[in-house]
Design goal:
By secondary structure, this protein is α+β, with helices and mostly antiparallel strands. Helix content is about 25%, strand content about 25%. α2 packs antiparallel against α3.
Length: about 160
């Protein structure tokens, strides 16, 4: 996971979910569309603005498939892996990156997080072998291992 901050704010312009996806996939924020904006503009999920379907297609082209769920994950869910939690922040709907049961990255500059998990998304690799092939490349970048989260300061990545 490489922490990427959101670049647009508010509803429906905010791209916190896209920043979480970019963080998990090690992509610049500019390479991840703002899928949720289309969702707010078209809540019936009809036609070309069906954001979950568009997100699934975009993600599958990159070798992943999303698993979406509503509610709080069961206790057994909290394993040693990254996932995206959606919930309410002081500013409204928001998304953050979790590792197990800990928030490890809030893409909003306030870093306040969410009050509670209301929905969650896991990015599952379509071909797990490719994830292993990419592991070496990830270590050459600003990769943050889970052991570093307790002392992690997002400002350490600023140039």
């Amino acid at each position: 996971m490489i922490p990427i901050d959101q670049t647009t704010f508010g509803i429906p312009e905010g791209n916190c979910f896209s920043a979480c996806v970019a963080s998990l996939l090690h992509l610049p924020i500019a390479e991840v569309p703002n899928f949720c904006k289309a969702g707010f503009e078209n809540p019936d999920r009809q036609g070309p603005d069906d954001w979950p379907r568009n997100f699934i297609r975009w993600l599958q082209a990159r070798g992943f498939f999303p698993v979406f769920a509503k509610g709080t994950p069961p206790y057994e869910f909290y394993g040693d892996f990254f996932w995206i939690a959606g919930g309410t922040s002081p500013r409204g709907p928001h998304a953050v990156v979790m590792y197990g049961d800990r928030m490890v990255h809030d893409p909003h500059p306030s870093r306040v997080g969410i009050e509670e998990v209301e929905d969650w998304t896991i990015l599952v690799p379509v071909d797990p072998g490719k994830v292993l092939d990419n592991a070496e490349r990830a270590t050459r970048r600003n990769y943050i291992s889970p052991e570093q989260f307790t002392d992690f300061d997002p400002k350490s990545l600023e140039r």
